[in-house]
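I'm stuck. Protein, please.
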Amino acid sequence: MDKKETRALLEQVAQGKLTVDEAVLRLKRQPFEDLGFAKIDHHRALRQGVAEVIYGASKTPDQIAAIAAAMLRQGQQTILITRLSPEAAAQVGTQVKLDYREMGRIGIVGALPRPDGLGRIVVASGGTSDMPVAEEAALTAEALGNETLRLYDVGVAGLERLLAHLEELMSARAVIAVAGMEGALASVIGGLVDCPVVAVPTSVGYGAAFGGVAALLSMLNSCASGVSVVNIDNGFGAGYFASMINHREA
């Protein structure tokens, strides 16, 4: 049960449509469920506004499917599974109805929610090679109820490609800038927009890129004041953080 459902429940009590005992019974669900190999935090949405997300890497398909089934039993409408390989997705899909997006390695159980954020999140990638991480960020944002616009292959090597989208960038509530190599895209965008920029360094690049460390250090040293940085290839973390920005009232 998330914050919206809890508020609706309390409103029903206030309106006399539900007794206090009936409401208490609904809220008395165990805060976590022990499956033996996993302890599912069913009250996370109530505490944080976002339900638990399944990290698919290193879990077996049976474990992933069992966790998703337990979440469905507790009434979760949309379940996000990150870092899900195509092979695991094929097996999970035989046990639960799964929408698999291979580019971002994201599995979605249930329907994507209607966007209810305050504005739009723009996801920009430096190059085509950065798209898997960018898609992880974009799909995460969409699964958390955000309108999302993708601007891919708009890196600084051809700056006119980025400048052609100034209107979309300047009207965003938050921008996710995904780039490898030297990671300059985040600083450039940060100097153009008045909203927060979430920078995602990727492991794309030649030898001296050091698997994304060069882009990470560039982004951390950005002279654009509105730039915050997540870990290398952490599209999920960027999408989650941008969603928090887009759902927070002034």
